[in-house]
Q: What sequence folds into this?
């Protein structure tokens, strides 16, 4: 149990994040869920890269055991991607709030539905 | 080292450089020239690589170590026949669409954000080319995110407010897809200790039945299927294509989903290997049924759309079904059908959406916002915009698969592969679903050619030459690749032959 602790945390975050994205209708909450989901992946890469008692990869006789530095580099890139995604998502949410006046998904769908109905009625009147 | 040896790096670097330059210079016209030049340079590079690959023997590839760090430690770029064909498609489509874009962008996007639009276009192109050329698993993810993030922005620039909602939705589903892909890559990295795809493939054989490898396969399949809009993971696509600016739809429809198919082919055939994907798991059967659902359900939905852009967006989902159907056979002819359809459908859809952009320009009233191309506005349009409408019909014939067009070649090989695999009923399915394509194309023909315009909708002039000429080059391409198949089918067969085990 204790040796799988990091995996349990990873899977919990993964499922919790994905659940929030799917289950919540609020655009901001969806983005929170998405971020949690992405964060779980950081842990998936990083946790196995750490060796107990391992140091940074220094080539010196005093250090024998070192942790793999590559996952850290990869996840640094993934974090940048995650930040960019979150920023873009929030920017879109702001623009949606400006033009729709709401950030609830069901209300946006209802507004769109109303436009489509209005368009169809306009066409019928013309025809 | 001469310039020729550095072509793989230049392929990505040239369009990648054009984007920040466009932002720094802050001028719409200059940005257009810069990014278009970048795309043409990428196209020239792709042709150069094509010629270089042609000189190698079958199945050989060009390997380029980035920064001279030898693979598998450094990042490797790798160009074989399939890579080269996809590079040609992506960079060629970008060059033509960008050349045609000026008039349409002028009307559909606010002037002050033109330079940002072109910068995003350049980034999206660089990302798509990067995904195709790289041989490093994590690099695939990074380039995937570069192209995805810029395409979310491009879609959100559409004038309709529904473009924002569509872009948000695509962002959520696209990011879930990309995260699934990176989880899959993570499992593979943990199990094999390498990120180089070829190195991974060599080490995966010994552990292919272990649970993390199976999980990686599942995560990658679902993630890539989201990006390529495999039915039923296609929900983001219709709205994104409908409300994005016309040129963005033309470019994304022709390239983005096609590059995702390429990634799927790479992982299935080059990394996991057919014995795992096709023999031990029921993946081909799942793929077969999802493809059939896509071919019928999406094409059937397309028939009832009132917006021409949305109609062809659903048609795209249906056409992706043919591509994944070819994959599921695991035979040379099947994979060749997928590859050649990826190429042919890209050209036809690029032409279609460009010409629809021309239609929107043509029916727009001076000074007002460009309207949606709904059928009541298109009535009798063939008289006033004959070239645009004829182009749409010819490209549409390629979607149906009429002999003499490129679409016929792909469907012919699909049928051959179905017969080879001992499932002749699939021939009927392919033919039946083509009938659905006839139905939705006929709706356009009927409205544009046979109906008289509704009062108040008589306006409409031919689209500008700057848009018509590149679009007609693509239309000519759908005919050319239906008659002379040495480029498209020849390289598809060669690529499939070296990827599929029965072809080796």
A:
């Amino acid at each position: 149990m204790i040796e799988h602790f990091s995996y349990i945390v990873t899977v919990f975050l993964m499922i919790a994040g994905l659940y929030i994205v799917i289950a919540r209708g609020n655009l901001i909450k969806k983005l929170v869920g998405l971020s949690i989901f992405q964060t779980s992946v950081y842990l998936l890469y990083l946790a196995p890269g750490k060796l107990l008692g391992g140091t940074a990869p220094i080539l010196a006789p005093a250090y024998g055991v070192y942790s793999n530095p590559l996952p850290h580099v990869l996840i640094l890139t993934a974090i940048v991607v995650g930040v960019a995604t979150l920023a873009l998502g929030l920017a879109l949410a702001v623009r949606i709030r400006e033009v729709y006046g709401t950030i609830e998904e069901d209300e946006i769908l209802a507004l769109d539905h109303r436009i489509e109905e209005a368009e169809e009625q306009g066409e019928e009147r013309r025809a | 080292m001469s310039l020729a040896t550095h072509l793989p790096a230049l392929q990505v670097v040239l369009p990648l450089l054009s984007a920040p330059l466009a932002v720094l210079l802050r001028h719409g016209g200059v940005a257009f020239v810069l990014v278009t030049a970048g795309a043409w340079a990428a196209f020239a590079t792709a042709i150069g690589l094509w010629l270089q690959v042609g000189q190698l023997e079958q199945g050989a590839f060009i390997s380029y170590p980035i920064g001279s760090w030898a693979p598998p430690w450094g990042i490797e770029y790798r160009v074989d026949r399939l890579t080269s064909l996809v590079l040609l498609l992506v960079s060629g489509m970008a060059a033509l669409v960008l050349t045609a874009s000026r008039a349409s962008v002028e009307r559909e996007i606010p002037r002050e954000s033109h330079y940002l639009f072109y910068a995003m276009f350049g980034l999206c192109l660089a990302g798509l080319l990067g995904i195709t050329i790289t041989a490093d698993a994590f690099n695939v993810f990074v380039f995937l995110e570069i192209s995805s993030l810029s395409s979310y922005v491009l879609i959100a620039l559409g004038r309709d407010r529904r473009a924002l909602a569509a872009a948000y939705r695509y962002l959520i589903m696209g990011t879930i897809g990309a995260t699934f892909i990176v989880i899959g890559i993570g499992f593979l990295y943990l199990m094999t200790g390498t990120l180089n795809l070829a190195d991974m493939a060599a080490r995966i054989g010994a552990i292919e039945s272990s649970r993390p490898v199976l999980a990686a396969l599942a995560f990658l399949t679902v993630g890539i299927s989201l990006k390529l809009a495999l039915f039923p993971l296609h929900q983001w696509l219709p709205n994104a294509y409908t409300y994005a600016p016309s040129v963005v739809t033309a470019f994304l429809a022709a390239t983005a989903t096609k590059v995702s198919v390429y990634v799927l082919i790479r992982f299935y055939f080059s990394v996991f290997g057919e014995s795992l994907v096709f023999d031990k798991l029921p993946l081909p059967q799942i793929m077969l049924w999802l493809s059939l659902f896509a071919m019928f359900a999406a094409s059937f939905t397309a028939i009832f759309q009132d917006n021409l852009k949305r109609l062809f967006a659903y048609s795209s989902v249906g056409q992706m079904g043919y591509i994944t159907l070819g994959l599921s056979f695991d035979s040379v002819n099947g994979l060749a059908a997928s590859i050649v359809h990826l190429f042919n459908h890209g050209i036809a859809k690029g032409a279609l959406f460009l010409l629809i952009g021309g239609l929107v320009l043509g029916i727009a009233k001076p000074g007002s916002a460009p309207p949606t191309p709904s059928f009541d506005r298109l009535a009798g349009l063939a008289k006033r915009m004959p070239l645009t409408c004829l182009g749409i019909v010819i490209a549409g014939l390629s979607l149906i698969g009429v002999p003499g067009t490129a679409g016929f070649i792909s469907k012919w090989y699909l049928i051959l592969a179905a017969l080879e695999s001992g499932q002749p009923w699939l021939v009927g399915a392919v033919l039946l679903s083509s009938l659905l394509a006839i139905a939705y194309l006929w709706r356009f023909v009927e409205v544009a050619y046979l109906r008289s315009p509704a009062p108040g909708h008589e306006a409409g002039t031919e689209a500008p030459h700057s848009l018509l000429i590149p679009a007609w080059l693509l239309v000519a391409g759908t005919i050319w690749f239906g008659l002379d198949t040495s480029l498209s089918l020849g390289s598809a067969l060669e690529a499939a032959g070296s990827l599929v085990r029965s072809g080796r």
About this structure: Chain A touches chain B through 36 residues (CB under 8 Å).
